Amino acid sequence: MAATCTCCGNGLDRIMNIRFERPEDADAIHALTWAAFEPMPYSNNTEARIVRDLRASGDLAISLVGEEGEEIIGHIAFSPITIGGVEDGWYGLGPISVKPERQRQGIGRALILKGLDLLRERDATGCALIGNPSVYRGVGFESDGRLTYGDLETRYVQRIVFKGPPPSGALKFSSAFDE
């Protein structure tokens, strides 16, 4: 699977190829994820390890890279989750990483939309994430306060329902997310 996306950055149109990760991409994804999250004040710098652990445990259900030429400039991971202790075709989005100097240029959005399309093709029930509502609302995520994640404010616990009723309960991500 490969798809192209035109992303705008600083007035320049660029073509990004979106494809599934390959085994030889692991180190580049690790370095990209580290670089993307290292300066973020909300990060505890575990995101690169999480991606490696998801891959090692077999929980990395969808792993996409965005590349220009031979350079990986973005990555997104999706893994199975439970809600209220029930496995029901739900996936978690994250981590998502974009090369720091390329952030806010539509790369992350393109990766999210492609990943959500692939989840729909797999007949997933929905997708959930922990994140800033102002960032993820634009791609269809919302919070109705019915999903929880520890003691985090429920507005940060968001979801997209592909089929069935909106869920309620506590999100549980893969053990790769455990510290």
Element order, helices and strands? Answer: EEHHEEEEHEHEEE
> What do we call the CATH topology?
Aminopeptidase
Number of contiguous helices: 4
- Amino- and carboxy-terminal Cα gap: 33 Å
Structure description:
Helix 1 runs antiparallel to helix 2. The radius of gyration is 16 Å and the shape is globular. With 179 residues, it is of the alpha+beta class. It has helices at 26-37, 47-57, 107-121, 133-136, and strands at 2-9, 12-20, 62-68, 71-80, 82-83, 90-98, 126-130, 147-148, 157-161, 169-172. It has a single domain (2-177), classed as Gcn5-related N-acetyltransferase (GNAT) (Aminopeptidase, 3-Layer(aba) Sandwich), CATH 3.40.630.30. Helix content is 23%, strand content 34%. It starts with a strand and ends in a 7-residue tail after the last strand. It is built from four helices and ten strands; from the N terminus they run E-E-H-H-E-E-E-E-H-E-H-E-E-E. Helix 3 links the parallel strand 6 (90-98) and strand 7. The strands form two sheets. A seven-stranded mixed β-sheet has the order 1-2-3-4-6-7-9, sandwiched between helices.
